[in-house]
Amino acid sequence: MASYLRSWLSAPVASAPTASRPNELPDPNIILSVSPPEDDDDDFTAKGDPEDEDLDMPAAFPAPFSAQRLQTTPQSNFGVPRILTDNARMLPPPNPSLARRGGAGGLTVPSGSGSLMPPPTTLKAPTKLSSSSKRGKVALAPGHSPLDWASLKSSGTDLRGGVEQLMKIPPSVLKQHNKRDDAWSAFNGKVYNITPYLAFHPGGEKELMRVAGRDGTKLFALTHAWVNADFMLDACLVGFLVPEPRS
Ligand code: HEM
């Protein structure tokens, strides 16, 4: 491209009619050169042998003797990356396995974007390992996992607290079953004996006891609507919640 432009610029061109001699035909023997004069001091023009220079070469940035280049000596760069001169060779990249977080001598994790380093969040070690989640899951006692509850349900053990026939249970009757060893609760119109499930509840006994002796439908839905209480407590069903009979 550069050589093509050069040859085009320096090629003989027929002179055009000038303003002083508008009607005169151009003399085919006159060469009109549009190339800049050789002794031109303009910095845009490459000096020396035109064949050795590339006119398309971009200007050096920063300039060869600029303040930036002079300030960035290898000894005192204060963490600012050294700007390489045209002749300086770029050092090979550091070994990634030697990278250390923020430590002296190691690679520091850049705060800005544009780096190939993983973001600091993925490098940060967890500070605290809590035994229970933020949502309130508790550590269940051994032998009280969901799987243990499933096998207890299918074992044929009485989980209804002696109730042999399903009953119609008004709120006043439900209210009486509010002790830990005799706890009933209603969910979606069904009344369950929740006492055997207390120790298996992932949210803890205390949470479950909040609904003992009353309708827990709302609290249940607010806490974990995705849990299938009907399936989990089918073996604990004791009856159906009915309105209080009129006296
Ligand atoms: C008897 C009915 C209930 C059953 C069958 C039941 C069952 C469950 C199950 C299976 C989980 C684990 C959920 C999960 O891993 O995603 C759980 C967690 C939990 N439950 Fe219940 N639950 C009942 C009632 C309640 C009630 C009434 C409350 C609130 C007072 C409650 C509060 C919690 C809490 C705070 C958690 C821990 C957070 C969570 O993992 O969602 N549960 N429950």
TrEMBL record:
Spans annotated as Disordered: 1-59, 89-134
Keyword Metal-binding in annotation: yes
Pfam families, per the entry: Cyt-b5
Coiled-coil intervals, chain numbering: none
Any one GO molecular-function label of the UniProt entry: metal ion binding
Gene3D superfamilies per the UniProt record, alphabetical: Cytochrome b5-like heme/steroid binding domain (3.10.120.10)
Keyword Metal-binding: yes
Residue stretches making up the Cytochrome b5 heme-binding domain: 166-242
InterPro entries: Cyt_B5-like_heme/steroid-bd, Cyt_B5-like_heme/steroid_sf, Cyt_B5_heme-BS, Cytochrome_b5/Flavoprotein_Rdt
Family: Belongs to the cytochrome b5 family.
Name of protein: Cytochrome b5 heme-binding domain-containing protein
Organism, as annotated: Hericium alpestre
